[in-house]
Amino acid sequence: MNTSLKPSETHSSPDTLPCLLIDMALSEDATDHDLTAQATIAEGMAGTARIVAKAVGVLSGSRTANEVFARVDAGISCRWLSKDGDHLTPGQIVAELTGPMASLLTAERTALNFLQHLSGIATATSYFVAAVDGLGCTIVDTRKTTPGMRHLEKQAVRHGGGSNHRMDLAGGMLIKENHIKASGSITDAVHACYALQDKTATNTWIEVECETMDEAREAIAVCPDIILLDNMTPEQVSEARALVPTSILLEASGNITLANARDYAQAGVDRIAIGAITHSAPALDLSMLVEAVEV
Question: Is the pLDDT confidence value at 294 over 90?
Answer without folding.
Answer: no
